[in-house]
Write a structure and sequence with these properties.
388 residues; alpha/beta; 10-stranded mixed beta sheet; two-stranded antiparallel ribbon; 14 helices; binds 3-isopropylmalic acid; binds magnesium ion
Length: 388
C-alpha cells in the first residue's frame, strides 16, 4: 500500500470511531437525572465474583453486607443476586470483555459489588480482549471513579475523582497499527464527560465541607484533550464559591504526594482517566497498598463497587485463594452502603475494619497458611461490628 492508501484506511477507521463517540455524547446528554433509590420498591445488589481470587474475597464482603442488611432483606427492600460467569475463561471463550448473558444480568441490578477480573494484554495466554473493568465502566456509563485514601496519623485525607469513561481508556482497544512501523492510540475528552466528573468532585467537596478541589492534568503538553478537561473544571468551579480550584500537572503532583509538608493540603482531586489510574495506586500505597483501598464507580443509573487490586491468579494456581485478603473489597462494601443511603451501617463497618486492620489486629493476613483466611477475617469483622 502507498502511504496515501494507508492514510486513507486509517482515516476511515478514525471516522468510524468519531461517529461512535458522537453517539455517546448524545446518550450522555440525554441522561440527566441520577436514579433515586428512595423511589424503588426494591434495591437489587448484584454480587459479581470475577476471577482469580475475586470469588473468594467477594464472597466474604457479600457475607458482611448480608449480615448488615439483614433487616432490609427481610422487609423485601433489598435483594442480593449472585452473578457468576465473569471469569477470564468465559470471556476468552466468547471473545468478549463481558459475556452477553452476564451483562444482561448485571443490567437488571441497581448496584454491583464486583471482585477483580484478569485483564489480558498482548502476549498473555489469553486472547487480548478488552478489560472487563473498562468494559463495565463504559457499558454502565460509570463516569466517576471515586477512590478515598486516608492515613489519619499523617494527616492524609484524600478523595480522588477519576474520570472513568474517557481519556486514554475510551478507545484503549481501538488503536491502529497503520503498518509495522507506526501505531496510533486515541485520547477522548468531551464537554459533557468533563463537566459531569468536575461537578461530582465539587458536589462532594461541598457536601463534606472541603475547601479545595485540585485538577490534575498535563494540559501544558496534551493541549487539546487535557486542555479541555482543565478549562471545564475552571468553568464548573465558578458555580462553587468558597471552594478553591487549583491546577497541577501530573508529573509534579506525583512528586508532591510524597512531600510530607505539601501533601496534607490536598483534599479532593479531579483528573482524567489514566492519570487517575496511576495517581490512585501511588496514593493507596501510603495507606498500606492497593489491597487496602476500595473504589466506587458511579453513574447516573448504575453504581459499581470494587477492590482496586488485581485478580492474583498465582494465588489460585498455588491453592491459596482462601488466604487472599478481602480488605479492599470490604472497603468497597463500605462505599456501597454509603451510596445506598445506609450511612450508619457504613460507619459501623468502616470502624470495625479500622479496628481489625490497624488497631486491635487480632488476625493477620499473610496471603498464605501462616496467616488467617479471608473467611476468618470476615468473621472477625462481623464480631467486631457486633461488639461496637
Ligand atoms: C484500576 C485497574 C484497571 C484500570 C485495570 C484492571 C484495567 O488498574 O481499576 O485502576 O486501569 O482502570
Ligand atoms: Mg489501576
Amino acid at each position: 500500500m502507498t502511504n496515501k492508501e494507508q492514510a486513507r484506511k486509517a482515516a476511515e477507521h478514525f471516522a468510524a470511531l468519531v461517529e461512535k463517540q458522537l453517539e455517546r455524547v448524545e446518550r450522555m446528554k440525554a441522561e440527566k437525572e441520577f436514579l433515586d433509590y428512595d423511589k424503588l420498591d426494591k434495591l437489587i445488589i448484584g454480587v459479581v465474583g470475577g476471577d482469580g481470587i475475586g470469588p473468594a474475597i467477594t464472597r466474604e464482603a457479600h457475607r458482611i453486607l448480608e449480615y448488615l442488611l439483614d433487616d432490609k432483606v427481610k422487609e423485601g427492600k433489598v435483594e442480593f443476586r449472585v452473578i457468576d460467569g465473569l471469569t477470564i475463561e468465559n470471556r476468552a471463550a466468547c471473545g468478549k470483555a463481558i459475556p452477553d448473558d452476564v451483562l444482561a444480568e448485571i443490567k437488571q441490578c441497581h448496584v454491583i459489588l464486583k471482585g477483580p477480573t484478569t485483564t489480558p494484554r498482548a502476549g498473555d495466554k489469553w486472547p487480548n480482549i478488552e478489560s472487563a473493568n473498562v468494559a463495565m465502566r463504559k457499558e454502565l456509563d460509570l463516569f466517576a471513579n471515586v477512590r478515598p485514601v486516608k492515613v489519619p496519623s499523617q494527616g492524609i485525607d484524600w478523595a480522588f475523582y477519576r474520570e472513568n469513561t474517557e481519556g486514554s481508556y475510551a478507545l484503549g482497544s481501538d488503536g491502529v497499527h497503520i503498518n509495522d512501523d507506526l501505531a496510533f492510540d486515541f485520547c477522548v475528552t468531551t464537554t459533557e464527560g468533563s463537566e459531569r466528573i468536575a461537578r461530582a468532585a465539587f458536589e462532594y467537596a461541598k457536601k463534606t465541607g472541603k475547601t479545595r478541589v485540585t485538577a490534575v492534568t498535563k494540559a501544558n503538553v496534551v493541549k487539546t484533550t487535557d486542555g479541555k478537561f482543565l478549562s471545564i473544571c475552571k468553568e464548573v468551579a465558578k458555580d462553587y464559591p468558597g471552594i478553591e480550584l487549583d491546577d497541577w500537572y501530573i508529573d509534579i503532583m506525583t512528586a508532591k504526594l510524597v512531600d510530607e509538608k505539601r501533601r496534607t493540603q490536598f483534599q479532593v482531586m479531579v483528573l482524567p482517566n489514566l492519570y487517575g489510574d496511576i495517581l490512585t495506586d501511588e496514593a493507596a500505597e501510603f495507606q498500606g497498598g492497593v489491597g487496602t483501598a476500595g473504589s466506587a464507580n458511579l453513574g447516573k443509573r448504575y453504581a459499581m463497587f470494587e477492590a482496586i487490586h488485581g485478580s492474583a491468579p498465582r494465588m489460585v494456581e498455588e491453592g491459596r485463594a482462601q488466604y487472599a485478603d478481602p480488605c479492599s473489597i470490604i472497603r468497597a462494601a463500605v462505599m456501597l452502603l454509603e451510596h445506598i443511603g445506609e450511612a450508619d451501617k457504613a460507619k459501623k463497618l468502616e470502624r470495625a475494619l479500622d479496628i481489625c486492620m490497624y488497631e486491635e489486629k487480632k488476625l493477620v493476613m499473610t496471603g498464605r497458611d501462616t496467616g488467617a483466611t479471608g473467611a476468618q477475617f470476615a468473621d472477625y469483622v462481623m464480631e467486631t461490628i457486633a461488639a461496637l
